[in-house]
Amino acid sequence: MDDVCEGKDFSFPKQEEKVLQWWGEIKAFETQLERTKLLPEYIFYDGPPFATGLPHYGHILAGTIKDVVTRYQSMHGHHVTRRFGWDCHGLPVEYEIDKKLGIKTREDVLKMGIGNYNEECRSIVTRLFNPEKGIVYGDGVTTWREWVVGRSRTLRCIALEKEEIAGKVMPYSTGCKTPLSNFEANSNYKFLCIPIFFTISEQEVPDPEIMVAFPIVDDPQGAAFVAWTTTPWTLPSNLALCVNANFVYVKVRNKFNGNIYVVAESRLSELPFEKPKKGTLNGRVNDLDSSNSKTKGSSGGKSKNVIDTYEVLDKFPGASLVGTK
């Protein structure tokens, strides 16, 4: 008892280390598995953190929640092996090696040799193995009987044979010449909102907006809906425009070029505005393509410029636009 209670010098972290060491010496976890081996099995495979860095609070929190489930099942008469694998695949490891060796293209990898490249990848995984294992042992989650590397390729082949994998469009890296997981595709994504006409926030990389006109079929005035986007490359795959049934929409005419647009009344002030430019034929300009839209000044001044540019021809509820082509 004196070894456990150290009075004023008692340290919970040090005591946990002693307990973990003792569990290892008496093979506590292995003994529990031996005693329960004839009981119904509760299958559990944990997905570990990436092998490119040590676990952080988020990993430990999720692991603790998982551990509650496995301990509960173990205490209720199940054999729970708790197999722990490694994410030793995919771009995170390769990215670290590419950065370390200055690799830019697939040809650089082939020149180095696939075998040598794989060894470099394996080296950073094994470098982190023992430190990470210690963290998982000591974070109060559990003690793990075995560490296994998942054979993801074999599992994929089995799933394909059973027709349990469906086809879909995947993100693809032209630099790495490989499909990307959703996590990998989003890992370097920067959320930006820097429109041309007014600035919402300052971010690292500019991401300009564009407004696109969609002509309305058989409209006697040749009107067009106006849509706003920062991802114009997605437009070819769009099937429809959306309107809000409860919003009020307006049909407006550009006083300088005669173009007619349909836009939500609350967004009218965001349309580009332009004053006649010297040298233009009858002052006609393509307002949505203009690079001279006013981008600065007070909102009041901006609204005045919009009023000077556009004439409201009609107002109607969004519900009346449903089905328009």
UniProtKB/TrEMBL annotation:
An example Gene Ontology molecular-function term: isoleucine-tRNA ligase activity
Enzyme Commission number, as recorded: 6.1.1.5
Top-level taxon in the UniProt lineage: Eukaryota
Region (Disordered): 282-304
Catalysed reactions, as listed in the record: tRNA(Ile) + L-isoleucine + ATP = L-isoleucyl-tRNA(Ile) + AMP + diphosphate
Domain Aminoacyl-tRNA synthetase class Ia: 19-128
UniProt keyword terms in alphabetical order: Aminoacyl-tRNA synthetase, ATP-binding, Ligase, Nucleotide-binding, Protein biosynthesis
A Pfam family matched in the record: tRNA-synt_1
GO annotation, biological process: isoleucyl-tRNA aminoacylation; post-embryonic development; reproductive structure development
Composition skew (Low complexity), residue ranges: 290-304
Listed name of the protein: isoleucine--tRNA ligase
Organism: Actinidia rufa
Highest classification ranks of the organism: Eukaryota, Viridiplantae, Streptophyta, Embryophyta, Tracheophyta
